[in-house]
């Protein structure tokens, strides 16, 4: 949800030659939450950019997911890319994202982060900060 963090992740993925994965995921989000009147247009755009043979930003999804997706786009709807999107999400979660968290790019992002100071006065004094207790035996 952090735009700066997402931009940094995209830069990292470009260096890793896998930026199309995040772009595909974002396009699927646009499909899911975008205008109803544009669904067929967005589905076609996603297919042409990421899934069609010879697509310029082709994403690597397994054959069963591809079959289900190709069957689904015959009657486009808001959730037709869900399986393919989840496949790409899991690839990023298990592979690209952990590498990003270990990267110099991410360490620099953390070093430049502004952490708001904790205030002593609380709006509601009855709400106390949770204490971390040691685990019981």
TrEMBL record:
Q: Which InterPro entries match?
A: RGS (IPR016137), RGS6/7/9/11 (IPR047016), RGS_sf (IPR036305), RGS_subdomain_2 (IPR044926)
Q: Does the keyword Membrane apply?
A: no
List the Pfam families. RGS (PF00615)
Going by the UniProt record, its keywords in alphabetical order are:
Signal transduction inhibitor
GO terms for cellular component:
cytoplasm; neuron projection; plasma membrane
Q: Which GO terms describe its biological process?
A: negative regulation of signal transduction; regulation of G protein-coupled receptor signaling pathway
Top-level taxon of the source organism = Eukaryota
What PROSITE patterns has UniProt attached to this entry?
RGS (PS50132)
Would I find Magnesium among this entry's keywords? no
Gene Ontology molecular function, alphabetical: GTPase activator activity
Identify the residues that the record assigns to the RGS domain, covering every copy. 1-110
Q: What is this protein called?
A: RGS11 protein
Q: Which organism is it from?
A: Circaetus pectoralis (black-chested snake-eagle)
Q: What is the lineage of its organism?
A: Eukaryota, Metazoa, Chordata, Craniata, Vertebrata
Query: What gene is this protein a product of?
Result: Rgs11
């Amino acid at each position: 949800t952090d735009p700066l963090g997402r931009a940094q992740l995209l830069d990292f993925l470009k260096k890793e030659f896998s930026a199309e994965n995040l772009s595909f995921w974002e396009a699927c989000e646009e499909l899911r939450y975008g205008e109803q009147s544009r669904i067929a247009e967005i589905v076609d755009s996603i297919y042409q950019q990421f899934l069609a043979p010879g697509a310029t930003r082709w994403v690597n999804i397994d054959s069963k997911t591809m079959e289900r997706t190709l069957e689904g786009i015959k009657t486009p709807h808001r959730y037709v890319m869900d399986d393919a999107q989840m496949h790409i999400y899991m690839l990023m979660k298990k592979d690209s994202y952990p590498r990003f968290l270990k990267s110099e790019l991410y360490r620099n992002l953390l070093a430049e982060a502004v952490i708001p100071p904790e205030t002593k006065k609380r709006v509601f004094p009855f709400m106390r900060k949770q204490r971390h207790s040691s685990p019981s035996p």
